[in-house]
Amino acid sequence: MRHYPVIILLIVLALSFPLAAEAYWQLGFDWQVTEGISPEAVKLNWWVAPRCGVRTVYAWAEQDLGLALVYIPQTRSAFNSYVGLGVRDLLDNSRLPMGEKVELTAGVELRLNQLIPGLSVALEGRLVTANLVGEQNQLAPFFGFALHFGATPVEVRTPRGVDEDLYLLAKLIRAEAEGEPYEGQVAVGAVVLNRVKSPQFPNTIYDVIYQPGQFSCLPKLATIQPNEESLRAARDALAGKDPSRGALYYYNPKLASPAGKRFFRTANLTPTVVIGNHHFFK
Question: Rounded to whole angstroms, how far apart are CA atoms 85 and 122?
Answer without folding.
Answer: 17
